[in-house]
Automatic annotation (TrEMBL):
<dbReference type="Pfam" id="PF03479">
    <property type="entry name" value="PCC"/>
</dbReference>
<protein>
    <submittedName>
        <fullName>DNA-binding protein</fullName>
    </submittedName>
</protein>
<dbReference type="GO" id="GO:0003677">
    <property type="term" value="F:DNA binding"/>
</dbReference>
<keyword id="KW-0238">DNA-binding</keyword>
<feature type="domain" description="PPC">
    <location>
        <begin position="1"/>
        <end position="122"/>
    </location>
</feature>
<dbReference type="InterPro" id="IPR005175">
    <property type="entry name" value="PPC_dom"/>
</dbReference>
Length: 124
């Protein structure tokens, strides 16, 4: 397990993809100044202005990309959730716990059935 703290202005997705390893984001909490979430079935992300609290964050990390989902609450308690895109900017902090896996155990490959780069699990 690896603990990670992100700082104000860090991009949540880019910071996690920058880790370069294989694993799963087990839990994440903190705050965002703004977010870009792609909702189910939508081609483009929506911009959600903050301040926002990260209620949940989870996903998979592979050297060739991440698949991250989050639920966020605004200052009125309204909740938004979806696929985390580049542009989710940390407001005060983001605290994350990552379960690391051996190098080469996860990858992303285009799946013709979905049209997306999907997770491939390899046994090293």
């Amino acid at each position: 397990m690896q603990a990670l703290r992100l700082h104000p202005g860090d991009d949540l997705r880019l910071a996690l993809e920058g880790q370069g390893g294989c694993g799963f984001v087990v839990v994440g909490m903190g705050s965002l100044s703004s977010a870009r979430l792609r909702y189910a079935g939508q081609a483009e992300p929506a911009v959600v202005e903050g301040p926002l609290e990260i209620l949940t964050l989870s996903g998979s990390l592979a050297p060739d990309g991440a698949h991250l989902h989050a639920s966020l609450a605004d200052a009125t308690g309204r909740v938004f959730g979806g696929h985390v895109c580049v542009g989710c900017l940390v407001r005060t902090t983001a605290e994350l716990l990552i379960a690391s896996l051996p190098a080469g155990s996860l990858a992303r490959e285009l799946d013709p059935a979905t049209g997306y780069a999907e997770l491939v699990v390899r046994r090293p």
